[in-house]
Amino acid sequence: MHLTPHPCQRANCILRSSTTHSFPPVAAATDFLAGVVAGPDAIQAGDQVCISYGPWPTEPLLLLFGFVPQHNPHDSLVLFSDLEHMADCFLEAVASSATQGSPGDLAAAAGGSSAASAGAAAAAADPAFAERLHEQLSAAEVAAGGQQQQQAVGPPGYRDLTLTDTRLRAAVQMLHKAVSAAAEQWCAQMNGVDQQQQQQQAEAVQQELGARTSGVVRFRLQQLAQQLEEAATQASKSSSEEQVEVVDEHISYRSSAEHRHLIAAYCSSKAQLARQLLAKL
């Protein structure tokens, strides 16, 4: 029997595998058996057999079964691999929205919204601020992990965050607090301003940076959509001949035109999902 992926809305059978002889044996020495169990409507002679692969995202369907579904209601998109990645995206988002030219010294940040934006850009571009931000997030993640372990609620850690993940809201809130604390520490290192002016500047920059944490998800979705669209275009333009793809100095493989077509289809489906998620924000 030949089973092929089919974009049907309703499967009429279940594909099961077993290491026991729960199905009628096909050979006496068989250790691994597989059978097709028909649905309640049964399968008539000549009917197409349609199976369900289960509510999986696209990655396992591509890696394990070698196809990319055209429409997958169970698909998901990983936005951030961890909190450190979220922090890096936040810094990149602030830097990308900075005005042209030098953001100026933080001493100008007490003037207004544009000055606060300049101060925020200056902080985001400073490796010292990035270091403090990562330190704050690491400490917060350790504390949150200890609480999760004690309460035994939810998945551990903050890895592979998706838009529908219940941990994402907590992660953004954690980022907001870490940004505020890092900004306060960073502003405290300023020289050449009196204490009152320093406090005003610190508050302006903290507010500006804090306000931008809520936009990190939108920024990342826009970034992913663009990267995936470019990857899909690149895969589509590749030569139809077999090519040697180099992963690193130890791993390489030969890719065919069919392989690159799958990669293009995968990237296109993920880019479309990112655009759809953006429209819902």
Number of extended strands: 6
So what's the overall shape?
A: elongated
Q: Output the strand order for the largest sheet.
A: 1-2
Mean pLDDT: 76
Instruction: Give the radius of gyration.
Output: 26 Å
Helix percent reads: 40-55%
Order of helices and strands: EEHEHHHEHHHEEH
Secondary structural class:
mainly alpha
Instruction: Give me the oligomer status.
Output: single chain
Biggest β-sheet, characterized? 2 strands, antiparallel
- Strand % is 5-15%
What's the helix count? 8
Low-confidence stretches: 1-7, 19-32, 99-112, 146-155
Intertermini distance: 45 Å
Account of the 3D structure:
By secondary structure, the chain is mainly alpha-helical. Helices cover 52% and strands 9% of the residues. The protein is built from eight helices and six strands, in the order E-E-H-E-H-H-H-E-H-H-H-E-E-H. It has helices at residues 58-65, 83-96, 113-125, 127-151, 166-187, 195-212, 216-237, 257-280; strands at residues 13-18, 33-38, 78-80, 161-162, 243-246, 252-255. The model is unreliable at 1-7, 19-32, 99-112 and 146-155 (pLDDT under 50).
Summary, kept brief:
The chain is mainly alpha-helical.
Topology of this protein?
Elements: E1 13-18, E2 33-38, H1 58-65, E3 78-80, H2 83-96, H3 113-125, H4 127-151, E4 161-162, H5 166-187, H6 195-212, H7 216-237, E5 243-246, E6 252-255, H8 257-280
Antiparallel strand pairs: 1-2, 3-4, 5-6
